[in-house]
Design goal:
437 residues, alpha/beta, 7-stranded parallel sheet, 5-stranded antiparallel sheet, 25% helix, 18% strand, elongated, binds alpha-D-glucopyranose
Length: 437
């Protein structure tokens, strides 16, 4: 069994740590400007101008079943959909605001269709819910609000009552966790409590006291006790969420040093929401490396798609998902139910290791394909059998060293040399599956 013990969680993270790989979905009115989900902030767009998107939002090609099929095919075991992003627009039929998808030409509860479709494909379902809300009349203007540069921003804030907004959040979260069946993840986003000397006190950021995070978390756990909650309410909960960044070691608790349950969230390109004109799309090798780099240090990867305003995943997103589908079809055994390899196994140069939770299988991911041999120090006497994972073809190996005439042969009992075909198999990252004695 794995020797790694993570910090105890209130939510059920057992399935989560087994499944490893999920789909993030950033979808909202911002798919119409199609130039980043923060567009209202970036261009300080007025509500009046932004309401044009509300007026014409009509995802007539939305087919949640197709999204779910694509996610499952890509090897993703769970999904997290934006039910409301910073723009404040609700993708579900809430009774607490008219600023919702059922009041647009869409005329349907988009979250409901997502939950039903993804559950039908056997995926766990999660909700992203933005703590930030640039549309709500009681959400106070601060340093990241689209109205931050208005000359009368201070005056606009008078009369705004954040207590009314936090009650609105609790009411909506109650709807989300009551009306759509079992929800597996509640993904809040995000807190920015640090004081910024460049701004007056009234424009400072927001943290747990502004959100009334304790009450919000209590509300969530009272309705869905098993749910996993992320750490962005300015209170640590079940999972840590490094974003657009690849940790190099297993994420630890800042105070206690305990290993924690963590999930890296990343985009296929630069933007979370659909961005028509950006070109920073990651290569197939980067996509697969990111998944392996995450699981090899005990983490989950949440890869994001930004559907178009018509409701479908564009070709670039479909191509990226196909890269995962192709690799996971043959190699998912090195991901599901796997975690960081035991300390006795030190990854040879150019490789990443994962190990099955039961300790019986070691996976050597050939991030850099070596020439002829892969020498693995410390594996001597421990290998029962080895094969390429993708096609189950045997990998021959010798113990004790390799005769290569370059030095007097010295017996090295700890060394195993795997003999590899000189031409890299047609797999983005080939994997050697080692059955341990
Ligand atoms: C950041 C972005 C936000 C996105 C989130 C996903 O908070 O500002 O737009 O939804 O990351 O983790």
């Amino acid at each position: 069994m794995s020797s790694y013990k993570t910090k105890k969680t209130l939510g059920n993270t057992e399935w989560f740590e087994h499944d490893r790989f999920g789909m993030f979905i950033h979808w909202g009115l911002y798919a119409m400007p199609a130039r980043n989900e923060w567009i209202k902030h970036i261009e300080c767009i007025t509500d009046e101008k932004y309401d044009k998107y509300f007026k014409y939002f009509n995802p007539d090609l939305y087919d949640a079943k197709e999204w779910a099929r694509r996610a499952k095919e890509a090897g993703m075991k769970y999904a997290v959909l934006t039910t409301k992003h910073h723009e404040g627009f609700c993708m579900f039929d809430t009774k607490y605001t008219d600023y919702k998808c059922t009041n647009t030409p869409a005329g349907r509860d988009l979250v409901k269709e997502y939950v039903e479709a993804f559950r039908a494909e056997g995926l766990k379902v999660g909700f992203y819910y933005s703590l930030i809300d640039w549309h709500h009349p009681d959400f106070t203007i601060d340093a990241i609000h689209p109205r931050r540069y208005d000359k009368d921003a201070f005056e606009q804030n008078q009369g705004r009552d954040m207590k009314k907004y936090t009650e609105y959040m609790r009411n909506q979260v109650t709807e989300l966790l009551t009306n759509y069946g079992k929800i597996d993840i509640m993904w809040f986003d995000f807190s920015y409590p640090n004081k910024d000397p460049n701004y007056p006190d009234w424009m400072q950021g927001k943290g747990k006291d502004d959100w009334e995070s304790e009450k919000l978390i209590e509300t969530v756990r009272a309705i869905q006790p098993d749910i996993i909650i992320d750490n962005r309410c300015d209170l640590e909960q079940d999972i840590w969420t490094p974003e657009q960044y690849q940790p190099l070691t297993w994420v630890k608790h800042a105070e206690t040093g305990e290993l924690v349950t963590w999930e890296a969230c990343q985009t296929f390109s630069g933007s979370w929401g659909y961005h028509r004109d950006e070109s920073t799309w990651k290569s197939p090798k980067m996509l697969i490396d990111m998944l392996i780099n995450t699981v090899c240090i005990g983490g989950n990867l949440l890869m994001n798609v930004g559907p178009t305003a018509r409701g479908y995943l564009d070709k670039r997103a479909e191509n990226a998902l196909s890269v995962y589908a192709e690799w996971m079809k043959y190699n998912s055994r090195s991901i599901y139910g796997c975690t960081m390899a035991e300390p006795e196994f030190v990854a040879p140069r150019g490789t990443r290791l994962t190990q099955s939770e039961d300790g019986k299988r070691l996976y050597i991911h050939l991030i850099e394909y070596p020439y002829a041999f892969l020498e693995f120090q410390g594996l001597g006497g421990k290998v029962d059998y080895a094969q390429f994972l993708h096609d189950g073809s045997e990998i021959l190996y010798t113990e004790g060293g390799v005769d290569h005439f370059s030095e007097a042969r010295t017996q090295n009992d700890g060394l195993v040399a795997f003999k590899l075909p000189p031409v890299k198999p047609d797999v983005v990252v080939p994997v050697i599956e080692v059955f341990l004695k």
